[in-house]
Amino acid sequence: MNEKKVLLVDEEKIVLDTYSFLLSKEEYKIVTADSGKKALRELCQQTFDLVITDLAIRNENGCTVLEEVKTMFPTIPVIVLTDNLSEIVIRFASLLGACTLIEKPFSYEILISSIRSSLTRSKDGMSKSV
User: Fold this and answer.
1) Closest residue by Cα to residue 39 from 52, 27, 29, 26
2) Which residues, at least 6 apart from 15, have a Cβ–Cβ distance to it below 8 Å?
3) pTM (2 decimals)?
4) Range of the domain at 62
């Protein structure tokens, strides 16, 4: 398998540690950032195949991370994690270029499925995973 590099952005260390461990078992190379600023710095220093960001993170929020990724690297798919899957959040994330929106809490299977789908799908729109 061709190892894909994923940037995982969340302010909770337990989330970063848990998903880094689990996703590395799936043969993904995981780079973590616990803030939007760190995420943006990593994006400028490395090449990524996928970004997964929580919507509610400190400093630069998840929307800012999403917007910057899609501005600087429009072909990189972005999965957005949120605990607020309202119509306004769906529309906003879609307008900013999210390829998938996952509502918290979510199962590991939903995350893996969304990752695989995001990495293989053509850039024809956003999907929701609830």
Assistant:
1) 52
2) 54
3) 0.87
4) 4-129
